[in-house]
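Hi V.,

You were right to ask for the full record rather than a summary. Here it is.
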Amino acid sequence: MPRRENTNFTSAGAIDIRNGWHSEESTFRIEIMSKLLRVLVAVGLTMVPVLGAAQTTPEQEHHHPGPHSIAACKDKSEGVACEFDGPHRHVVGTCRKVESGVLACVHPHHHAS
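Predicted structure:
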């Protein structure tokens, strides 16, 4: 008696995918999925530099003085020592004009321009 192979035929007449063959319909689906995957990878790779550019480093951020910093230099002149209790800590610094032109109490390690 001849050996019977494990072969299943689909309604389209192609051999089942378990044996390494597939129908035209499944080939079409694989091509579509392959193209979709390529598009998604291309979009993802395009977004990486865009999202990277959206990130700012601390050196690029412009810190605006808070109300406590401005109030600490009220009625004082530039270069005078100042201090205030900020939202995170006690700050001891010097009154300086910041980018916005306002006189504010700035910590000595603050990188003012």
